[in-house]
Amino acid sequence: MKTDLTIVGGGAAGLAAALSAIDPQLNILIIEREPRLGGILNQCIHNGFGLHMFQEELTGPEYANRFIEALKDKHIDILLGTTVIDIQKKTDFEITLTSEANGYQHLTSKAVIIASGCYERTRGAVQIPGERPKGIMPAGSAQRYLNMEGYLVGKRVFILGSGDIGLIMARRMTLEGAQVLGVAELMPYSNGLTRNIVQCLNDFDIPLYLSHTVTDIKGKDILEQITIQQVDDKFEPIPGTEKVFEVDTLLLSIGLIPDVGLFDSLQMKKSPITKSAIVDQTLMTNVEGLFVCGNALHVHDLVDWVSKEGEKAGKTAKAYLLEQKHEEKDLKSIAPGSNIRYVVPHLIDYNHLTEPIQCAFRVTKKMAQGQFKVVQNGEVILLKKAKHIAPAEMENLIIKPEDLKSKDPIEIHLEEIV
Amino acid sequence: MKDYIVIGSGIIGALITRTLSKYQVSVLVIDKENDISSHQTIANSAIIHSGHDPKPGSLKARLCVEGNAMYDTLEHELAIPLLRTGAYVVAHNNFEEQMLQELHQRAKQNGVLGTYFLSGDEARKVEPRLSETITKVLSLPSTKVTFPWEVSIHAISNAIKNGAEFKRNAHVISIKKVEDHFVLHLKDGTTLESKHVINAAGVMSDLIARMIEENPEFEIKPRKGEYFVLDRKAVGLFNHVIYPLPTKAGKGVLIVPQTHGNILLGPTSYEISDREDESTSREGMKYIKEHLKALSNQIPFDMIIRNFAGVRATSTYEDFYIQESKTYKGFYHVAGIDSPGLTAAPAIAKYLVEEVIRIDLPMKPDFDPIHQPIPLFHTLCDVQKQIEIQKHPKHGHLVCKCEKVTEQDIINAIHSPTGNDTIKGIKKRARAGAGLCQGGYCESEVLKIIARETKVKPNEVNYYAKNTPILVKETKTK
């Protein structure tokens, strides 16, 4: 098999990428592991999707369907129930696929967009002590069991981490008749969207314990009880603050990590912070012709931004494929400065700078008011004020080519306005 | 009526069962849990020690060195993985170098072959991540690493092929001697009868012993060990087992490359009162990180995917206790099997059968020592993969992407003679869920496959023990 552009993943990012890459000269292929398109949106039956893309509140499946409908009758190939197990870069990309229907298949592609989403951080990764009974799982797994398979995983539930999936599941399990006893968050602020705190916890009188974590788990075969404790500013548990909850389920909503584990043979350069590829403003990695977007690149707070990033990757991949001759790159860094955890893109390619750079980033500190400063050679070249800045919410900033004073590296800082 | 019942399907019970299955006797191995090898065998360092540490002249020293050599045969007969890592024991100063010399003498006395010294710099050339403060290293080339519960499962599979039987969820609550045999009463109300009984019940072995005698010569003093597991992408960061100098409490906190590419860090070692307490603790995890500094300061703790704890069946009897009961002939205790129990296991089985029981029966003429497991798909070469996928299209469906497990691998793990129908049982056999995402993606798939293959409803599929369903309430009933 041969194609021009292969998109790995048929979720929010991949679908948007495919739509924006459409061109009469290009053969495009989407590869999706599940038997249907839509990705994780399919299990997100709550509403709130699409406010920015469609100025409407849609459910996850409805949101996905807008894109799936738009793809119909378009010149795009789709392989469902198919997993990419290896990608190697030779002259072109050599991709190995596997499926029950077709066994192993080999595919050659001129460009690749990785839109493989993210996975949930586990108990092991955050080293929660205690016994290891059944009844402890990532919130997304419980969501899948409930919304896709029609089963509740427990009746008395506690949730560790205030990530959005945990908050959504607090409401969802309550509505299905389970009792949610509380949510503990290690940080002194919530890690979920404010609207989810209000609509999923406050509206159901579910307590949120900030600066708390789970410090013990009891139950030999089945989860019986958990202990939470308040933590100090070094995240060490404070003795005497223990609270015990008798529960049969502990859901974990402690973070998402880009899922790019299957692409090791590409030798893509990675950021230790986002745990995914380092890209320039075209979302291209150090591997020529390889693009990454959506939650596979960095974890977004809203699906709308995932789609926008997918669109961007589709557009730039198309431009790359239609380019007669690939010009040399002139790469400089876009570095995270004070109070900024990371910035995507990580690099500017000055030789391909034709459009405004869409910078997405996360801050390290909650602030009522602050200003973002873009600095080049010690000089502030762009200033943007913002309110209600929080690490849980992704920030955006657009740098126009004319804002840049030279072809030197830039930094983005955040300053608190008191 | 059986000739032999083995209580406990840990690696000790499993290899004893296999050894007995060579003879013309009927053998049944039972376990109180829902699967083979659920405790000490699945929670240890997985090291086949060379035998540098046990006291010379002890049964531990003898059976450790013998057992180490026997694994080379088991590798071929039972198709178990064996990583020939070798080991380094490290010293940091004159005092520790002196102790290293003594350890070397002890190793030689125990019959450990091929040992030699390296300077710190020489060792760092081979293992560049070793701590700069290490001045001298004792190299133990015969140290190996295996995958312990696979040894048990394959040993019992081979024993079954040779006529033995396995029964799970068989929790012995009392034992009576009746005429010429023993009657084992189980928790579920049923009984089992056997002419001979072998107590290989691990941390429960003194409780079993007390069912037939008042004052057994040993008592279990359980000792907990906590560990970290690094993701398989840590493969190659360390290629030897790295030991500090041993102390009375054990071999210390180690770095152990594993057969699937992971690296194990640990264990702690402290006495506990509850022999079933396999919980991990904040203190334990801190202790491991603190003590690893003496071995290396280049350990990627951000690659930790899991922590776990195991309980060692340390006993008041200093050596392994492998003896016939003083009260009843035909009842044998194989107890106090802590480190180097895994290493010694094949030699323990041989020693028990040939020197303690002194079985005086003919071998089965048709005994087949070979177990040929169905290999996991990802371990095959490309040509074999193409052949297998033609025969079994479900190899085309990749269920667990972290460990590259196919649907057919899971089906094979369910249906083999020693198969299992639980989420953790499948993880033990096919490794689905053993990787980076710890089953976050594939658990629901595995659950559906188990339900389909064993013809039960999804909410009847257990996590591990009996009555541990993952799904507790159906929400869309008619």
Automatic annotation (TrEMBL), chain B:
Start and end residues of each FAD dependent oxidoreductase domain: 3-354
Source domain of life: Bacteria
Location of the BFD-like [2Fe-2S]-binding domain: 398-451
Family annotation (InterPro entries): BFD-like_2Fe2S-bd_dom (IPR007419), BFD-like_2Fe2S-bd_dom_sf (IPR041854), FAD-dep_OxRdtase (IPR006076), FAD/NAD-bd_sf (IPR036188), G3P_Oxidase/Oxidoreductase (IPR052745)
UniProt protein name: NAD(P)/FAD-dependent oxidoreductase
